[in-house]
Amino acid sequence: MHEIETSALQARLFANYANRLSFELLPGASDRVRFPRGGPFDERRGYAAIPNYVERLKERGYAITEQVQMSRELVRLIGLGVAAPFREPRVAGLVVRGLGGRSLYDARQRERTFVDFDEVPPIVVDTLLFIENKELLAAHDPRSNPTLEWDRMAKASLLYAGAAMGLPVSVEGGSTLATQIEKFRHSPRGRTSSAQDKLRQITAASLRAYRDGPDTTQRRRDIIVEYLNTMPLAAAAGFGEVHGIGEGLEAWFGLSLRDVADTLRDERAPLEKRVLYYNHVLALLAALPAPSALLRTDRDALRARMRAYASLLARQGVLDADLAGRLADAPLRFLPRAPAQPLRDFVDRKAATAVRKRLLELTGAGSHYELNQLHLEVDSTIDTELQERVVEVFRDLARNDFVAANGLRAKHLLQRSDPAKVLYGLLLFERIGDQNAVRVQVDTLDQPFDLNRGAKLELGSTAKLRTLAHYLEIIAQLHNELRPLDPATVRIRSRAARDPLTTWVADVLTSEPSIALDVLLARALDRKYAATAGEAFFTGGGLRYFTNFDRARIALPTLRTALEQSINLSFVRLMRDLVRYHESRLPYDTQLLLEDPEDPVRLRMLREIADAESLTALKRAYRQYSGLDEAELIDSVIRRERRPEKRLRKLAILHYAWSPGADRASLALWLREQLGAVGDSDVARMVRAYGNPALHLADYGYLASRHPLDLWIAGQLWRTPTASWEELLRTADEAREISSRWLFQRRNIRPQNRRLRIRVEKDAFARMTPYWQRLGFPFDRLVPSYATALGSSGDRPSALAALLGILVNDGVRVAPITVDELRFARSTPYETALRPDPEHARRVMDPAVAGALRDALTGVVTRGTANTLAVAFRDADGPVAIGGKTGTGDNRHYTFNRWGEVKSSKALNRTASFVFFIDDRFFGVMTAFVPGREAENYHFTSSLPVRVLKLLAPAINSRLSAPPPAELAAADSQPISSPRRH
């Protein structure tokens, strides 16, 4: 009896044992840590999944820098399935900080919870205890165990036993609030499935009660606060899972916890308001036994429970007479959907959105909602102050007065265009040691879509940088390949070479066998490529003509000058040399392929080409004709011909194509079905013209001016309208062979060679693609055209910035770091911190090539298209080196007449970009973009992003003048915080 009344022995035993359940945060990965098995809160806050997150993060270049080391007793306890008795955080959720610890994003909902016992209105405390745990605050001894109420447990046990024997009794739970907390937080699925589960809950709750010593007075108050803050209240539409009275009031009724609590604590508040608020609190407390049913589907039962409780609470004196008397008539106002949360502007949230998206990739969390629930603190690399300054300037650029005041109304800028419709983007990195930290990531598209990382844009002449990088890499590759050879062998290789690049390098090495790579690369940049227009280039499937943006002032510029002045024709001719280099290294002889009609490789390729062309024609025809009724099908095939004579002729051709060997009567019936009255003479004329049995599918295609496979697909669908694509493809072999037969005839050498030249060019570009991808090109294929040197293959701003990162890092490719540290479960037994591992960097370019490219890009600013920025950037000692490449993309859809003249031009979008580096510390990309038909009204060039970057120079200069931030500077040494013991 003494123990029941005082819990003296329990207090001593549990307090002593809890004192041995310690953990300490230490450097590196822990060899003594155990994670929970997965109760609802362990899963919601991510504690149970930390091992999975860690493994995934390791695969993505992160390493553990700090982790908890548990005492052996705590490891054993968790191994038995008992929840660790630590002080759980009142609120938890994703927290993202920027540079210097400034808040970037905080998913914790502090306003929906009580901070301490004093914040809880007494009437709410009394109501909760009356319903759930009457003796919690009425203990006679400060050592009393709040987990156990012996009379309550005895009653519950007797009722359970009676029910098991078949007696007509209702079972009541014997769990105290402390035990219930353990159940809905840490038991699997929040339930008690066995006696062992109940024992684990009681053990965990008791250890938690005596965690701070034998006196449980404060713990009993804490239990009330924790229960009210985290009790499960089902899931509400538009909100998700609801935990705690604060979330319940907001999600189910649209009420604020602060308003409700302040009103219920204030005795002078209007009675009507106190009644209204208390009624909704009572609804949530009454719904606790079955919240999903009572709050969502059976609200009549909920009201009945509320009336019963109100009566009991009034009789026991918990409610005063006035309040109790009005409860019966007080409304209960459920919302159909949780109120929408106010959102900040998308532009303001771009950096936070980018970090959260990156966290989804890193952790594998299933959704942003799941990510927001994690007990996770993230230090990002975003410079929040600089980010805000960039957003401010971008917003100003939508104002006419700002545009005019900063000289942006000039030619090749905004002139008379509406500045508000231009979208801007900036991605800025800072090189800190061996890491590339994202400092600014913003664009003005007012949507979650990330223009910098997600958009495929035609960024124009920035592709010249990729082309030049590939060219210099090939020169370096040839240097490494040929330099070890003796001069005689090099001369032989020069004579045997089938491409101009190999010939040039071999000739240089013949005359200067010991030439250093950096000297050869400088000389390669000084090679001259003609800038004159007028030449036709066979590329991209046909003859193409290219022009320069400005009439070339130099007819034969060096590549260095062509880069600085962005001269198109020089780079088109350079790309031709690059294609020839790759063509000469294809696994077949391209010259023999085009010259020998009997070459087996040629015949195999022609078969592959014919097969691909026929498959394309079949797909196109199926898409066009499937789903049409008979009349629509026929009308579509004959192109809705309405002239009587031509319609008669085309229908006759269709009939013979679809019904080979048809007789005159069959044709007459067909024509009269389609045209009505048709004279016998007309039928006879059609038989003489098209009834020749020697004609086949290809002949009828020619006569109908349609591809033979168009006629075949249409005929099959005419017979069997429900035929699937797979069924038609299985029966198309003969038709495909007939339609392609012409290509293999000896008289068709020219169309054969034309197709083979296209195929060779495609194979060369396919061989080129991995070189580009290694340097960050983001797509699976290059467009097989010399126009790829001018941007026709597209790009992404982030991918261009990645290429600059390689150059700034002397040829080493480093994954950009947006997330500098992830710290799971701070101040818990599961705390784990990870940071990027610098060892995941890899060399993708020779340092000499990177240096040569940086030198060439510096000339673009000092002497070329970006010379506006020549002295714009400076540190404490004066101007710093800046280099970059400009690019303009005027993406249009052209239509041509039969003579190749442009009939119409429709703008699809307009882009201008500048990819840059500043000193050896900052690099990035600035983009201006107008999507859709609005682009017709804009004629800006890359001068626009260059000028906008100049507007940002003062803000960036303040960073150049300051020492690099410390958060990544010592990444190799992996600094840690001081050990913390709990």
Helical residue percent?
Answer: 40-55%
- Find the count of extended strands (DSSP E, 2+ residues): 22
Major sheet details: 8 strands, mixed
Portion in beta strands: 5-15%
Instruction: Output the radius of gyration.
Output: 39 Å
Order of the strands making up the biggest sheet: 4-3-7-14-15-2-1-22
Rounded mean pLDDT is 90
What structural category do the secondary elements indicate?
alpha+beta
Our count of helices gives: 43
Q: Uncertain segments of ≥5 residues (pLDDT<50)?
A: 968-978
Q: How many distinct folded domains?
A: 5
How far apart lie the N and C ends?
Answer: 35 Å
Give an account of the 3D structure.
The chain has 982 residues and is an alpha+beta fold. It folds into 5 domains: 19-73 and 88-109 and 343-380 and 821-845, no CATH class; 231-341, no CATH class; 392-459 and 803-811 and 847-969; 465-564 and 760-794, no CATH class; 600-744, no CATH class. Helix content is 48%, strand content 13%. It contains 43 helices and 22 strands. Strands 4-3-7-14-15-2-1-22 form an 8-stranded mixed sheet. Strands 13-9-8-21-20-19 form a 6-stranded mixed sheet, sandwiched between helices. A hairpin with a 2-residue loop joins strand 10 (537-539) and strand 11 (542-544). It is globular, with a radius of gyration of 39 Å. The chain starts with a helix and ends with a strand. The model is unreliable at 968-978 (pLDDT under 50).
